[in-house]
Amino acid sequence: MNILVLNCGSSSVKFQIIETDLELIKQNNDKRLARGVIERIGSQALITLQPEGGKQIKKARPLRDHRDAIDFILRWIISPDSQINQIQSLSDIDAVGHRVVHGGEKFSKSVQINMEIISGIEDCIELAPLHNPAGLKGIKAITDLLGMAVPQVAVFDTAFHSTMPDTSYLYGLPYHLYRRYKIRRYGFHGTSHRYISYRYRQEHGLKLKDVNIISVHLGNGCSACSILRGESYDTSMGFTPLEGLLMGTRAGDIDASILEFLYHKEGLSFGEIDTLLNKRSGLLGISGLTNDMRELLEEEAENQDRRAKLAIDIFCKRVRKYIGAYYVDTAGKADAVIFTGGIGENSPVIRERICNGLESIGLKLDKNKNNKTHSRKSGKISTEDSRLSAFVFPTNEELLIARDTLRVVKNVPRRW
Ligand code: ADP
């Protein structure tokens, strides 16, 4: 089956076309045919398409909304200009998998989309007002453009964390607020942490119940996840993706009383405080320079910028603190710490700064192996005698979305 995977953001659409079937999954031989992104939807959009093994092509077009954007992608991928030989017409797209950010307590696994599911995703908008509407726009655009005959599947970022026990997901708030409004920790990046769990299992030939790891996804958004017996046991993001680690522009953990203090001192509305915490904090807020880790590392090395160093130090300390907490919380059951995401996959120096101190829980970094593992390479980066191993695996959420889509459409149960 050729599966179109869509990840719709507020003004962008990332997409991939992946060929998969049950035999290809068994052989771990699914094929990506193309990937691309449309940015700046709503004005002069920039569209990038990369056919597998071919040259990247860029175009600029005024695209009003997500429907226009997806219409443009569909027309482009079937044209000879796209160089995607397997896709000659829209009938070559067998199914569409959508990344949907929030599934609330309703969705604990991927589901085929129908009117009832759409209304369930709409119900979750109040939990993710910035994210779920974009996913819904993608679903609606595909229904309009490809018709009801092409099956669509929703894959939720929260679903993997539905196995968390209440001791992990409840806040220390009055219990009736959980009952009344479902205020609880949901966790995000679930598809990425699930992929990491799958990769580790595959690499070591393990049964699902034998996967005990701490997965650390460090990109623009960052989260850690403690995985016990192959299931999410705890994770650092909470009711929204704001909680937990320090991120590119998000503050991560803060004392909630700061909100009221800011409201009085700076005269900010709650909307403005939300923007401050989500868009102007984190690496950007502390450094006053940028949310981009690569640029911060350059500023620190070339200009000895004090606040760039401070932002990086706080970032690394917070990750180390979560790894330590998860290790102890699971009574030392974790066998490995696994790094992924743009920073986790590509930055040996950040991994080294995070792991500096983790010898106390048995993680000994092999500096040589660590330095050689970058540019989306996979590998073990701890020493052979390290009690707690460390690995780098590039994440691949799109692959899991494509496989989930296939399995849901074919009604085949998922084994991981
Ligand atoms: P997103 O969460 O938006 O998918 P990514 O996973 O691509 O983001 O991660 C983006 C982050 O990864 C940026 O902070 C970027 O600077 C960082 N990054 C990418 N390559 C490197 C590198 N070689 N060294 C340090 N940071 C890097």
Walk me through this protein's architecture.
The protein is of the alpha/beta class and 416 residues long. The chain has 2 domains: 2-156, ATPase, nucleotide binding domain (Nucleotidyltransferase, domain 5), CATH 3.30.420; 207-392, 2-Layer Sandwich (Nucleotidyltransferase, domain 5). Helices cover 39% and strands 19% of the residues. The strands form 2 sheets. An 8-stranded mixed sheet has the order 5-4-3-2-1-6-8-7, with helices on both faces. Helix 2 crosses helix 4. The radius of gyration is 21 Å and the shape is globular. The mean pLDDT is 96. It binds adenosine-5'-diphosphate (ADP). Residues 219-221, 248, 292-294, 297, 341-343, 346-347 line the site of adenosine-5'-diphosphate.
Keywords:
single chain, 416 residues, alpha/beta, Nucleotidyltransferase, domain 5, 6-stranded mixed β-sheet, 14 strands, 19% strand, globular, binds adenosine-5'-diphosphate
Give a brief rundown of this model.
By secondary structure, the chain is of the alpha/beta class. It has helices spanning 22-26, 66-78, 115-123, 132-146, 166-169, 175-181, 190-204, 257-265, 270-279, 282-287, 293-303, 306-329, 341-346, 348-355, 367-372, 397-410; strands spanning 2-8, 13-19, 31-39, 44-51, 57-62, 95-100, 111-112, 152-156, 213-218, 222-228, 231-235, 336-340, 379-380, 389-392.
